[in-house]
Amino acid sequence: MVELKKINELTWQVKGVKVPTFIFASEKLLEIMKKDKTLIQAENLSSLPGLYKAFVMPDGHQGYGFPIGGVAALDFEKGGISPGGIGYDINCGVRLLTTPLMIDDVKNKINELIEEIFKTVPAGLGEGNLKVSIDELNQVLEMGARWAVEKGYGTKEDLENCEESGDYKGADANKVSDGAKKRGKNQLGSLGSGNHFLEVQVVDQIFNEETAKVFGLKKGQIVFMIHCGSRGLGHQVCSDYLRLMEKEFEKELSKLPDRELIYAPAGTKLCDDYLAAMKAAANFAWCNRHIIADLVRDCFVKIFGIDKKSMHTLYDVAHNIAKIEEHEFEGEKHTVFMHRKGATRAFGPGMQEVPLKFRKIGQPIIIPGSMGTASYVLVGTEKSMKMSLGSTAHGAGRTMSRHQAIADFGSKDLVSDLGKQGIVVRGHSKSGLSEEAPGAYKDIDEVVKVSDELGIAKAVVRLKPLGVVKG
Amino acid sequence: MDRYVFLEHTADAKFQAFGKTMEEAFSNAAIALTDVVINQEQVTPTSKKSITIKSETLQSLLYDFLEKVLILMDQEHFVVAKVDSITITRSNGHYLSAVLSGDLGLEKYEYKTQVKAITYNEMKIEDKPGECMVQVVVDI
Question: CB-CB: which of B11, B63, B71 is closest to A61?
């Protein structure tokens, strides 16, 4: 049993560990975390070297090594980098596109739009339409979404509105194995499966009028959300380096409570190599979301006759990634390997990493719900910089096993239930649909409420789904 | 006895595979993994793949073996119907050689979900005479 000390209604500190480790959760969310290994995995984080602080976000659940929703800052010189603190789906993330359309413009054509997107964007086991050579893939790995812009997909403005400008500097394609490249080569521009989705949504509630205006969002407006990652390439980069690290760092491994916490100590070649490979996989993911966004724009142009350039990228966030950041610990500034696994960066006003147009108010944060439930746009805060090292939740987080979900929710019932709520659903896999049923997830409203009340991000607008394509 | 069973896991797919020998348990794990992705029972073998693997421990051998099965699915669209002539050697390191019978047509079968990676999470290997079991969680 992990013992917790209650700090306040929404903050709990893990007792008996040498590094401050906090859980951000309401009583209700904490009860769910207690049912699986989330808290044990949080406790295990203190075995990592050079750790300053660790957190579990309100949507935390059991992962491998790190919990999902785990945030950990490891010293840049005395710490290290752990692939398990980033996850297999490197730069799994979310992009939100704004449109000039309002609910009345689209409500009779949602079926048509979803059908078009279902046909156009490869998903499930489908490979991308874009066949790139290994040379081109290497360019994608080192240029990210900028490669796609140079090839005529999307706009330069899209790049400004991605974390790392969609082009993570320091990526090295040579550090990605041939096996990983072969796995990912034919998957560029495809959605994948699992919890990845494409969703047309309407802004249905505004919590902060002024910030919403800066984000270009108004009530009744149609927006589009893309949730996916680095596909087989990123998964293989993670697997490859986990195996390399456990072979190379046997002594370190023997001191860890969980094999999947394996890390490369700062200053080692493997640490540098993994960092460069992880960045390359992150670039693949940014390029992937960018190309999918372009396909989605084509569908909107076809169905609604709008100008392609009238759909803008509000922002594109990564929620499985490591960054080199500077944070303050006990009055001193330190450079750290910031691990966010199932957590979103939530940088507040004034941070140079935030695009100029948002720098006065903080970065946009996109938190997707589960299928059929609301999603949210939030904004980073000064408080989040201090409280959670500029991090917040990333989604709803599962509460039910996939097999239980299949048993509880048949895919037919699910589609008709969602249909009754006015939500059109198309899925590439029957069982996949049931697995992702809203009942299998934590309450997204509760997750966002906890983030908002704590102030680790403030809610700006709520988005209601109208149509979904599942991988 | 079932060749394998799926167990409850919040976020991922978890299974136990059984066999009289470690070879049989490993083979059944490969079938279970394929069954996570597609309806495995439908697979008709039309081609064969020979694989050899060398790893540090029995656990890493299981990881590497299943990863190979996964990579064959992703890269070559090869799905396993059955495992022929598998040998595990445990002296001077851990070695596995096997011939996989399967089909180069992943897209022909009823698709369930993609597997991102094999994990060490909750991995267990039980090695008793006449009664072997491997437990694996895969990330989906």
Answer: B11
First-last CA distance in chain B: 27
**Pair A77, A266: CB distance under 8 Å:** yes
State pLDDT tens for residues B40-92: 999 999 999 999 999 999 999 999 999 999 999 988 899 999 999 999 999 88
User: What is the per-residue DSSP string for A14-72?
Assistant: ETT-SS-EEEE--HHHHHHHHHTTHHHHHHHGGGSTTEEEEEEEEEEE--SSSPEEEEE
Q: Which amino acid is at A321?
A: I
Query: CB atoms < 10 A from the CB of B42, how many?
Result: 12
CA dist B46 to A78, A289, B50, B52, B98, Å? 53, 36, 14, 20, 16
Residue B14 and residue B122 in contact, taking contact as beta carbons nearer than 8 Å: yes
| Residue contact B113–A194, C-beta within 8 A | yes
B4-139 in CATH: which number? 3.55.10.10
Who's near A374: CB < 8 A, 6+ residues apart? A204, A444, A445, A462, A463, A464, A465
Q: Inter-axis angle of helices A27-35 and A444-454, to 10 degrees?
A: 120
Which residues of chain B are within 8 Å of residue A183 when distances are taken between CB atoms?
71, 74-75
Q: B12 to chain A, minimum CA–CA distance in Å? A: 7
Q: Which domains does chain A have, with CATH numbers?
A: 4-76+87-470 (3.90.1860.10)
DSSP string, A148-198: HHHTTSS-HHHHHTBGGGG--TT--GGGS-HHHHHHHHTTTT---STT-EE
The CA-based diameter of chain B, rounded to the nearest angstrom, is: 42
**Contact (Cβ atoms closer than 8 angstroms) between residue A221 and residue A203:** yes
Q: How far apart are CA A222 and CA A117, in angstroms?
A: 15
- Our measurement of the distance from residue A75's CA atom to the centroid of its chain's CA atoms, rounded to an integer in Å, reads 23
Picking from A347, A137, A101, the residue whose alpha carbon sits closest to that of residue A224 is A101
Mean pLDDT along residues A132-156: 96
Integer Rg of chain B from CA: 14
Interface confidence (ipTM) of the complex = 0.86
Sign of the CA dihedral running A247, A250, A256, A258: positive
- What's the whole-number mean pLDDT along residues A88-96? 96
Rounded Cα–Cα distance for residues A241 and A139 (Å): 21
Structure tokens at B129: 């005479």
Q: What is the pLDDT of residue B11?
A: 66
B140 near A CB under 8 A: yes
Mutation pick from A402, A403, A408 vs chain B, by most beta carbons of B within 10 Å, is A402
Structure tokens at A358: 């948002």
Q: Do residues B124 and B22 lie in contact, with contact meaning Cβ atoms separated by under 8 Å?
A: no
Nearest to A189 by CA among A112, A284, A113: A284
Residue A88 and residue B118: Cβ atoms within 8 Å?
Answer: no
φ/ψ (deg, to 5) at A41? -65, -35
Q: For chain A, what is the radius of gyration of the CA atoms?
A: 21
A346 contacts A380 by C-beta, under 8 angstroms: yes
Over residues A69-82, the pLDDT tens digits come to: 999 999 999 999 99
